[in-house]
Amino acid sequence: MTFLGARPPGAAAAARITLLGAPYDATASFRRGSRFAPGAIRRASESIETYSPVLDRDLADVPFTDGGDLRLEGLAPAEMVKAIRRQMPPGLPLFLGGEHTITLGAVQGLTPRVPDLVVVQWDAHTDLRDEYAGQRTSHATVMRRLVDGGLPLVQLGIRAGTREEFALARTRCVYSARGLQLPAALGDRLRDTPLYLSVDVDVLDPAIAPGTGNPEPDGAGYGELLQSLRSLAGCRIAGMDVVEVAPALDPSGRTAIIAASLVREMLLLFGP
Ligand SMILES: [Mn+2]
Predict the structure, then answer these.
(1) CA-CA distance, 70 to 153, in Å (whole number)?
(2) What's the CA-to-centroid distance between 13 and ligand 1, angstroms?
(3) 179: which of 11, 105, 203, 222 lies 20 to 30 Å off by Cα?
(4) Which of 130, 131, 75 is nearest to 105 (CA)?
(5) Integer distance in angstroms from the first to the last C-alpha of the chain?
């Protein structure tokens, strides 16, 4: 099964965006299940419209293919990151996680061709630990590895982490805040540089999107997240992901449907 409106694989050459599933949740600390997200998001996409009235754009206007799932099961975290890095599709990739660790492989896979990449992260959590549960490559350390690698990082929606992580965010991130709106001056700066957009679904309030491993109270509304993404319309987007959907933790199914809507909006907003 492919995502709603995806062109057949034969049209891949013409497509500028490739959707790729990254079903991996081996380092999940609290509740696993995000490895089932790519399939659940594709299934949920059948229940939504291809047309976005706000953007007045339809998925039929955006040439994209669905490359299926990468084979990541059974790999150690560092091996999984390498596997993603090696299988980077041409053009603009949109990864369906999987846990947040997959972002490390995606960004590292892109930096050789996009050396001045800036990462924008929507997340409840800082993900800036140096190590977590004995692992240096983990969902809780992913942004630390990127910052240590010299990548400029912008964090939005942040409301959980250790004292040390918050201190690090203040000194090492370009910007880190609880709110989702970019300051105008920063928004202007981001227009001059290619961006990687990473959306952890736990940036949303758990009442909206309960199907995730580490829910944090008092999160954002869906409209607020869309508004934040729309403020980057017209920017140069080099890659994107939607991570940490754990379908089995939400028997109502709404988290997967919200994720499918979010993927549609990202395709319509940032597709050619
Ligand atoms: Mn998170």
Answers:
(1) 26
(2) 34
(3) 105
(4) 75
(5) 24
Ligand 1 center from residue 268 Cα (angstroms):
24
Q: Which residues, other chains included, contact 155 with Cβ-Cβ below 8 Å and sequence gap of 6+?
A: 121, 123, 126, 143, 169, 173, 175, 176, 177
Domain 9-270 fold is: Arginase; Chain A (3.40.800)
Report whether pLDDT(14) > 90. Answer: no
> How far is residue 177's CA from residue 155's CA, in Å, rounded to a whole number?
6
209 CA → ligand 1 middle, Å:
12
Question: pTM score > 0.85 for this model?
Answer: yes
Work out the pLDDT band at 28, boundaries 50, 70, 90: confident
Burial 156-175 (b: 16+ CB within 10 A, else e): bbbbbbeeebeebbeeebbb
Q: CA-based angle 244:45:49, to the nearest 5?
A: 130
All structural domains of the chain with their residue ranges = 9-270
